[in-house]
Design goal:
The protein is α+β, with helices and mostly antiparallel strands. The protein has one domain. The chain contains two helices and three strands. The protein has a three-stranded antiparallel β-sheet. The longest helix is centred in the middle third of the chain and has 16 residues. It is globular.
Amino acid sequence: MKKLLLLASLLLATAVAAADQTISAERLTRIDRLFQQYVDEARIGGAVALVLQDGKPVYERAFGWSDKETGRKMTTDTIFRIASQPRR
């Protein structure tokens, strides 16, 4: 899971790396595919990705489920409960 978060962070950071600071639609599409692939492979249940440019959202997507058992999809405003996670 940590590897996914690191990979996602790197992909999101490089999405805005163009010299003129425009967002590359191709890179954003790759991010979409990566997250969807991880959901489809059951590597993650769901995720929310956000890229800010000059303090404003330029990319915001939700993938997968916030609660798969009840059929509730992830949304960009889903609240996450974060607690200490045991190391594997």
